Amino acid sequence: TVNESSVVKKHNNKWRVVDIVVAAIIAVAAGVIFWGWDVICAAPITLFEAVPGLEGLLNGIWLFAGPLAAIIVRKPGAALFAETLAAALELAMGNPWGIGGSLIIGICQGLTAEIGFAIFAYNGDLLSTTIAGTLAGLGCFLYNWTVNPAWAGLRIVVSCVTSVISGALVAGVLMYLLQQAYR
What we know:
The protein is an all-alpha fold. It has helices at residues 17-40, 42-48, 65-73, 78-93, 98-119, 126-147, 153-181. The chain contains 7 helices and no strands.
């Protein structure tokens, strides 16, 4: 007989209905939060723009849907699905950034978060979640830089660093801690 404790159970990457429902619920809640953050962050963005690029510190709120869905569902595509659906809902509710600043950037953030989870086979630990949040921040920065070609020098560096830090802390560490608290 085989000792059951020595058998390694293979992770199943096949999506179940419950996975879709859970990821969608996270995405809908996140979309509403994104929309609310669109309204709330208008004043801080103006203040943060006094130091070009510092507004990247506010990006973490828009980055959390993908990492949170991925650490709960633990399936390839969960981060992309949740971040994209959340961004689509934010767009449908109305925001000042339109399709590019909502849906397209959401896809970029979801794709880059997916890379972080894929590297670690969707295990959902603190390191993989932090890296996924960091990469979502990088995806956010890369989109913003692409659509703002006049950015130069220090603004590029500050925006990249602040977006990455915000992603690591909010979408990474905070989402991991939140998931652990409700486990």
